[in-house]
């Protein structure tokens, strides 16, 4: 028997979310719709300049873990925070969602990570992230019983930025595969793909990663092509399963020669796209660990993503299990 459905590994970040117009992004040199890594000084500067904000525990893989728990799945999380106010907020929030989080906090500097997220009127989010304590995640934080006890381990490509985190992920993946489990990752961001293209491809081709999540921009960046169809044909050869989101076009899932087309969930107003890909992965992995078809997995992912973009913040406010039952998906 497995102890968990999914173990998520990622940057433990408190999101500070504010609305802003396009001019604000230009004036402050913020790259729109991307995750920009910043230092402590710039983090303080942007915090001073931003308008009224909402603080919420975030981080890509943490959002996915919260989503899986909301579906009724058993989720665990590895991520590093510091012993400070934001660290306390993070511990409280992720555990309140029902996620097992026992990584020991950092007792000294740097402080808990934070991301200043500016949401423009079109719903796009521009993230400015100070990684802080996240960079201290290392092999000593790997809990073997969770690595071996989760049906699927899921990690975010963003975590490839802090060097020691790579060792933690490789150790977790080895323990998972030795226990007959599977490993998945999200490419996270096209700029992240540009930084680590060769390493990401090696993770897939070496068999360390079984399932890959990406959006259309990331997959085209991975294979350095402007053709989505070409990129999709290439990724189906490089990993066991790939799930690729396409915004209003829904998503496509490939496994060998099999191709599954998933329709998007109908939404009203798009408020904030923060967490859309994270919640898609949550729905997909919940379905996958319950033995559902790829079509069902994609539909569950589409439902979760469609709900989260209609709110401010990256974690579900609704009970996703109830929403899925009401939609006839469970």
From TrEMBL:
PROSITE patterns: PFKB_KINASES_2. It holds the Pfam family PfkB. GO terms for molecular function: kinase activity. Residues 57-315 form the Carbohydrate kinase PfkB domain. It comes from the Bacteria. The keyword Coiled coil does not apply. Keywords: Kinase, Transferase. SUPFAM superfamilies: Ribokinase-like (SSF53613). InterPro entries: Carb_kinase_PfkB-like (IPR052700), Carboh/pur_kinase_PfkB_CS (IPR002173), PfkB_dom (IPR011611), Ribokinase-like (IPR029056). Belongs to the carbohydrate kinase PfkB family. This is Adenosine kinase. It comes from Kumtagia ephedrae.
């Amino acid at each position: 028997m497995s102890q968990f459905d999914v173990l998520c590994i990622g940057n433990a970040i408190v999101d500070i979310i504010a609305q802003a117009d396009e001019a604000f992004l230009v004036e402050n040199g913020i790259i729109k719709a991307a995750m920009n890594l910043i230092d402590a000084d710039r983090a303080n500067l942007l915090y001073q300049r931003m308008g009224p904000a909402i603080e919420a525990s975030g981080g890509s893989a943490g959002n996915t873990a919260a989503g899986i728990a909301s579906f009724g799945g058993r989720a665990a999380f590895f991520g590093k925070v510091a012993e400070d106010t934001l660290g306390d907020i993070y511990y409280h929030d992720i555990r309140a969602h029902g996620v097992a989080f026992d990584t020991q906090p950092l007792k000294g500097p740097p402080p808990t990570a934070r991301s200043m997220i500016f949401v423009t009127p079109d719903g796009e989010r521009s993230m400015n992230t100070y990684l802080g304590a996240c960079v201290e995640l290392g092999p000593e934080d790997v809990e073997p019983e969770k690595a071996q006890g989760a049906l699927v381990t899921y990690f975010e490509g963003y975590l490839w930025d802090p060097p020691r985190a790579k060792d933690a992920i490789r150790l977790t993946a080895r323990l998972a595969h030795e226990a007959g489990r599977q490993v998945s990752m999200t490419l996270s961001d096209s700029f992240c793909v540009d930084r680590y293209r060769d390493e990401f491809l090696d993770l897939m081709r070496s068999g360390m990663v079984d399932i890959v999540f990406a959006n259309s921009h990331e997959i085209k960046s991975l294979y350095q092509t402007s053709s989505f169809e070409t990129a999709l044909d290439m990724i189906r050869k490089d990993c066991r399963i790939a799930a690729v989101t396409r915004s209003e076009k829904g998503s496509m899932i490939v496994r060998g020669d099999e191709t599954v087309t998933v329709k998007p969930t109908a939404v009203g107003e798009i408020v904030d796209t923060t967490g859309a890909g994270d919640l898609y992965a949550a729905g997909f992995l919940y379905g996958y660990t319950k033995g559902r078809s790829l079509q069902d997995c994609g539909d569950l992912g589409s439902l979760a993503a469609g709900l989260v973009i209609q709110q401010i913040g990256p974690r579900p406010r609704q009970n996703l299990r109830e929403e899925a039952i009401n939609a006839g998906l469970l």
